[in-house]
Structures are given as structure tokens and as C-alpha cells.
Amino acid sequence: MDTVNTSLTTVLVVDDEVRSQDAMRRTLDEDFIVLTAGSAAEARSLLEQQEVSVILCDQRMPGLSGVVFLKEVRERWPDTVRIVISGYTDTEDLISGINEAGIYQYILKPWIPDHLLATVRNAVEAQGLQRDTNRLHLELRSSTPVLRERAASNLAQARQAFDFERIERAPGSPLDAVCELAARVARYDLSTLVLGESGSGKELLARAMHYASPRANKAFVSENCAAMPDTLLESELFGHKRGAFTGAFEDHAGLFQRANGGTVFLDEIGETSPAFQVRLLRVLQEREVRPVGAARAVPVDVRVIAATHRDLEQRVREGLFREDLFYRIAGVTLTVPPLRERVGDIAPIARRLLQEVGQELGLSPARAAALRLSDEALGVLMAYPWPGNVRELRNEIARALALSEGEGLAAQSFSPRVLQGQTGAGLAALAPGLGQAASGTLVERLDAIEAVILRETLLRQRWNKTRAAKELGLSRVGLRAKMARFGLEG
Which SMART domains does the annotation name (predicted)? Predict the structure, then answer.
């Protein structure tokens, strides 16, 4: 069994396959304390010893199946969020147990790391919101003024936390224009389509729009449309009635009903099937949902913000996305530029992430605030193209922080992928002296360029002078002479 650090949120992974345990641990352990169990009995023992926020349980295990075990968890530890993972392509058997076990979400194998992480994050957030709701209900019974004061305070805190100004960026960033347009659009009930690569911050922009809108005092709910088959996605968004299918033992309100008066964020809408697109279009046109198995539709008042990394116009031309749905969701289109197109934002984002990750790893707020990135480290980060955008940057910061000693984050702590993946466009970040190449004599300009190349090679080779000299076609003596000439000690 695992040792526990109770200062962070704890997630329990229950799977009889060690490789699956390890894969989920690697995906989650940057954000959570991850415990593992190979059987229901081992998981039960862990739950009896300590508090667990979320359980990820495989459906097929020796002895008890996942949903049968989670039914027991629901009875004994009702506050724990329950998620089941299965490789079944036919979900009927699973659905029969989902409601009895009070399963928060069902994940189909092979699972996607980003989706798994997002699901657990949402589960923890949902658990916190439920606790807040329960507390507010108690306050309502005792004092209505207290409830009003708490609601106003929570709303003020949320608006501050998700304000457009809190979206980290440098002065003059390309994001300024995007945020300015989003802030103007937020005031009106216009359906909005947010385009951008995975990890670029589309949901953060959507949340800022919600809390800048008149709907801010109502719920903001999100769903990744690429993560579920149509049947489960329809039930999750639109709800279902008791008896609608095998295992539907009680009515289930969908996200559209739960967000009534607020905002629904549909991520990766470009991955939905044509059949589901028809049902979603009807909901948006009629402003009502018909839960699965219901005889009548239920009116809903929500604002929809959709997002995708796909080129939806191209998918419309290819017949993969309905044209009428495209025009329905794209009342206004916002495009979040990838991180490689806003190199200036990398430094402030990295500094912010350094403090956040430091606290997540158990550092005190004061010690986390004291963490610093060296100039060389920032240079390396600004020279890398970041295909995974902010999400990849966060992972790299966490890795480097774990490998570094002291309060300074050194360039050598970054992964070989980052050190070796520098682009020509980013080399200027490695040495301020490159700006000298734009003026001065020819010799002075060549010296500035040579200094940049020399420093970049040393960083990529982790200051191994033998390898750096070999790559540059120099002797070690010649390399040392050039390092001394340009003030590069290492």
C-alpha cells in the first residue's frame, strides 16, 4: 500500500493490472496524491484508513466487478466521487449498474490521458461544489441573510479568480485582442465558438466569459464531447427518466438542466457524430431538452460556448459536421493562438506555473513565491515550440522543479525534448546579445550570432564540453577559448 501525504487531494486507482495502475499514476500524480490497489479488498482497506476524494475503478477485476464494488463505496463512503473505467464496447451491462452505484462518469478504454486528468479535476471540483451547496443549505435553514452574504462573497471571489486580467500574458500579447473581444461578447447571450489547439486555454477563456456575463451567479458546467459514446453523452447532457433503459433506477438531470440560467461549455464539439449533432441542434433551436425516455421536453435557458481544435468549416465541407449546427454555435468565433505564436507570454506563464506547481508539490506559499527561473531557463523555454501548449509547459515546469535544488530553476533540469527542440525563431531568447547582430561592424554582428549558437549548443548538450565541441567541430581547447571570449562559464 502507498504512504499518504494528506496535504493534497487523494485519488485511489483500483485495477488488477499493474501497468494500468502505473499509467494512471503517471497521468495524475502531478496534480494529486495517487494511491493504488489491485483488488476491491485492498481498496476497501485503504478507504477505511483515510479520506479519498475520487476513486477510479476498473470494471473487470477478479472477484467483485467495478460497479458492484462502487455500490458498496456509495453506501459506506457517499462523499467519494466514483468513476468506472471499462473496455466494453457494448455499455448496456455497465449502464445497468451506473445509477445504483452513483457513478459520476464512465470512461471507455483506451482512455486518453488528457481526458482522464480533466475528468478527475472536474470530479474534485464537483465534490467541492456539492460540499459548498450542502453548507449553504444548512445556512439557509438558519439564516437567509447569511446565505445571501455567502453567495455574494462566492460570486465576487469567482469573478476575481476568472477575470480576463487573470489570464496570464505579457503586455502587448496576441491574447489581448482575443480577451477584449471575449469581454465585449460576454455581456450578450450569443453562442460562441472557441477555436484553438489542445492545451491552449480554451476552457479558461470560456470561464472568464461566464463570470463576466449576467449569468455569473448561475452554474458553469463543462463536458468533453470526445470522451463518451453517443448514448452516454446524450444522457449526460440531456438527462434520462427512470426506466428509460436497463439500470435507470432514478431520474437523472442532465447538464443542460443543472446549468439552467448559466453556461454550458461543450469542449471538442468537432468530434461528435452526425446523429448527436441533430439532437444538439434541436436543443439549441427549441431551447428545451427531452431527457431519454421522457414524454415531454423540459425548457432550459442556457448559453452555449463550444470549443474545438478542429477546422469546423473544413469538416462542414467534408460532410462531417452539420452546416446548420455550425452556424448555430458560431454566433461569434474566438481563436486562441498557440503558445508558439505568443512567445512573449511564455515567461509570465512559466513564472505563474512555477509558483502554482510549487504549492501543489507541498511547498509553502512563501517558499513557492520565492522560486525563480534563471535567464538561461527562460531562454530555453522561449525557444521551444510547445506543441502541447500551456499543458505541456506545466508538465515541464513540474518535472524541472522536482529535479532542481534550491530556489532557482536551471535550464539543465528540462527534458532533452525541450533542450533539443529549440527553433531558429526562438534563438533570440537565449542571449540578449543577439540584438547586437542588427547593428555594428560585420565582425561584431558575427560575434553576436556565434555567441548565441555556442550557448544554445552548450545548453542542449547540458554543458558537456566534449559533446559540444564535437558537434561544433572544435577541439576542447578551442571551445574553452570561445567560452572565455564570450563569457560563457559552465
Answer: AAA, REC
Instruction: Name residue, grid cell 467534408.
Output: 318
CATH classification code of 154-337: 3.40.50.300
Q: How far apart are CA 108 and CA 229, in angstroms?
A: 8
User: Which of helix, strand or coil describes residue 57?
Assistant: strand
Q: What dotted CATH number matches 431-490?
A: 1.10.10
Rounded CA-CA distance 107/83 in Å is 8
Strand pairing class (372-373; 408-409): parallel
Q: What is the pLDDT of residues 325-376, one digit of tens each?
A: 999 999 999 999 999 888 889 989 999 999 888 887 777 778 778 888 887 7
Distance, CA of 209 to CA of 488 (rounded, Å) = 47
- Give the tens place of pLDDT for each residue, 57-74: 998 888 788 888 888 888
| Percent of the chain residues past pLDDT 90, beyond the cut | 27
Other CB atoms within 10 Å distance of the CB of residue 51? 12
If DSSP codes are grouped into helix, strand and coil, which group holds residue 287? coil
- pLDDT of 102-149, one tens digit each? 777 778 788 888 888 888 888 887 777 666 655 555 555 555 555 456
Does this model's pTM top 0.70? My answer is no
CA nearest 177: which of 204, 205, 211, 197?
205
User: Which residue from 104, 367, 466 is spatially nearest to 480, judged by alpha carbons?
Assistant: 466
More confident residue, 437 or 156: 156
Q: What is the CATH number of domain 10-117?
A: 3.40.50.2300
Exposed / middle / buried, residue 288 (Cβ in 10 Å: 0-12, 13-18, 19+): middle
Q: Could you give the CA distance from residue 208 to residue 430 in angstroms, rounded to a whole number?
A: 34
CATH number of this structure's domain 339-430 = 1.10.8.60
- For the chain, the domains span 10-117, 154-337, 339-430, 431-490
The answer to whether the beta carbons of residues 58 and 66 sit under 8 Å apart is yes
Half-sphere exposure of 359 (CA within 13 A, CB side): 8
pLDDT at 258 over 60: yes
Residue type, 62: P
Largest CA distance in the chain: 84
pLDDT value at 154 more than 80: no
CA angle 406, 412, 416 (to 5 degrees): 140
- pLDDT score of 155: 66
Higher-confidence residue of 343 and 435: namely 343
Alpha-carbon distance of 79 to 284, in angstroms, equals 34
Same topology between domain 339-430 and domain 431-490: no
